[in-house]
Amino acid sequence: MEKLIECVPNFSEGVDASIIKQITEQIESVDGVKLLDVDPGKATNRTVVTFVGNPQAVVEAAFLGIKKASELIDMSKHKGEHPRMGATDVCPLIPLANITVEETVKYANQLAARVGKELHIPVYLYEYAQPDAKRNNLSVIREGEYEGFFKKIKKAEWKPDFGPDEFSVKSGGTVIGVRDFLVAYNVNLNTTSVRRANAIAFDVRERGREIVDDKGNKKIIPGTLKAVKAIGWFIEEYGQAQVSMNLTNINITSVHTAFEEVSKSATERGMRVTGSELVGLIPLQAMLDAGVYFLKKQKRSIGVSEAELIHIAIKSLGLDELNDFEPEKKIIEYRMRKPADRALQSLTIAGFADKTASESPAPGGGSVSAYLGALGAALGAMVANLSAVKKGWEERLDEFSAIAAKGQEIKERLLKLVDEDTQAFNDIMSAFGLPKTTEGEKLARKEAIQQATRRAIEVPLTVMQKSLEAMQIAKAMAENGNPNSVSDAGVGALCARSAVMGAHLNVKINAGGIEDKVWIEKILAQADEIEKDALKLEKEVLAQVDKVIAKG
Question: N or C: which end of the chain has fewer CB within 10 A?
Answer without folding.
Answer: C
